[in-house]
Amino acid sequence: MSCLHIRGIFLTLCLAPTALSSLHPECEYIFQLEKEERNCLEYIAAQANGSHEGCWPFWDAVVCWPHAVIGETVNRGCPAVFSLFKNNTGSVSRNCTSGGWSRPFPPYHIACSVDDDIPETEESYFATVKLIYTIGYSISLVVLAVAVLILLLFRRLRCARNFIHIQLFITFILKAVAVFIKDATLFSSDDINHCTFSTFACKASVVFCHYCVMANFFWLLVEALYLNSLLLSSFYHSRRCLWGFSLLGWGVPVLFIILWIGSRVYFEDTECWDINEDSPYWWIIKGPIVVSIAVNFMLFVNIIRILIQKLNPRLIQFNNSSQYRRLTKSTLLLIPLFGTHYMFFNFLPDYFSINLRLCIELCMGSFQGLLVAILYCFLNQEVQKEVHMQWLRWQEGSYGVVSPAAKGSQMDTPF
């Protein structure tokens, strides 16, 4: 199977914390073959002083064949690298004859279920995934930009809660932009071998992508911390508090990114910095993300507990269906805002159904920004009221007195 057929598949390294440490299948295929080839050549060199009778060990670009005597049949299992694209447990054999090794039987493409359609099938699948997440990020980017403009333009919508929402929306926008930049840099041409590609531009695009992902997770954490503080106390969110949230959301990721860049420059300055197999320095980025997800999940559980208590503070139990609906609605609304769905990804092994992981983490993840913008901006009653008032003013061509009912929205601390 040729790895050249699936060149250009997007790396999942910068889009989800659970997939960040895994290699792209094509690179894994190449590197495993190179590793097995090195081991085979070392084995051949070690056998150089041995018996010269029979068939010499050799590497056929797929499997390492050992020394064998004439008349012997050697069986070898299908290479492990084939399992990256399709599970197989077949085996291939060769006979050692007086004229040397025979051809493999059955052929690799039959014994290992690797036919000519697999590269095209893989290419088609990943091309479809790329098309879906490109559409998802494009739509999310446009909708998020509109949401940010709405929250900034209307003075009555300027409050601490919406300030935090704006920062979160911006991180989703930056993440979408980072994906497009990385695609354009690493996969601008089919002639680029992105497994060994190494330029300043590609490294900068990878660093920018990682920073945007980290900032996105930390602003999800800020959302959870802010909502918990509102529910637990009558905490006054002053300008200093917002500066603290900004430092956590934007500043802390900068610190970890700088540490990671230093570790890559001095210890692992290889390829385009987008491959982190068995790298201990990768935890400089992955560790804080995993911790933020875990903290967010605990805050999410705490908020659900508080909501249950508020629904029935005396008995802490439900006695009508409306309370179930209110709790269910609140829970579903908080899942995309807190990013608690990432807890599921963290428990999946790196190579658990890679096609399913790509579909969930790339395709569904690309629409998360769209979902958050709709739930926390366009479906917000305060936003709808302000937009409706502006629309009426524009239609009437005047900025007259607004009815008291339209002024009744309650806001948080202005910023």
TrEMBL record:
It is found in: Cell membrane. Its main location: membrane. Residues 1-21 form the signal peptide. The keyword Hydrolase does not apply. It is a multi-pass membrane protein. Residues 39-116, 129-380 form the G-protein coupled receptors family 2 profile domain. GO terms for biological process: adenylate cyclase-activating G protein-coupled receptor signaling pathway; cell surface receptor signaling pathway; positive regulation of cell population proliferation; positive regulation of multicellular organism growth; response to insulin. PROSITE patterns: G_PROTEIN_RECEP_F2_1 (PS00649), G_PROTEIN_RECEP_F2_2 (PS00650), G_PROTEIN_RECEP_F2_3 (PS50227), G_PROTEIN_RECEP_F2_4 (PS50261). The chain crosses the membrane at residues 131-154, 163-181, 217-235, 242-261, 281-308, 329-348, 354-379. Keywords: Cell membrane, Disulfide bond, G-protein coupled receptor, Glycoprotein, Membrane, Receptor, Signal, Transducer, Transmembrane, Transmembrane helix. GO terms for cellular component: plasma membrane. InterPro entries: GPCR_2, GPCR_2-like_7TM, GPCR_2_extracell_dom_sf, GPCR_2_extracellular_dom, GPCR_2_GHRH_rcpt, GPCR_2_secretin-like, GPCR_2_secretin-like_CS. It comes from the Eukaryota. SMART domains: HormR. GO terms for molecular function: G protein-coupled peptide receptor activity; growth factor binding; growth hormone-releasing hormone receptor activity; peptide hormone binding. Receptor for GRF, coupled to G proteins which activate adenylyl cyclase. Stimulates somatotroph cell growth, growth hormone gene transcription and growth hormone secretion. Belongs to the G-protein coupled receptor 2 family. PANTHER family: GROWTH HORMONE-RELEASING HORMONE RECEPTOR, PDF RECEPTOR-LIKE PROTEIN-RELATED. This is Growth hormone-releasing hormone receptor. The lineage of its organism: Eukaryota, Metazoa, Chordata, Craniata, Vertebrata.
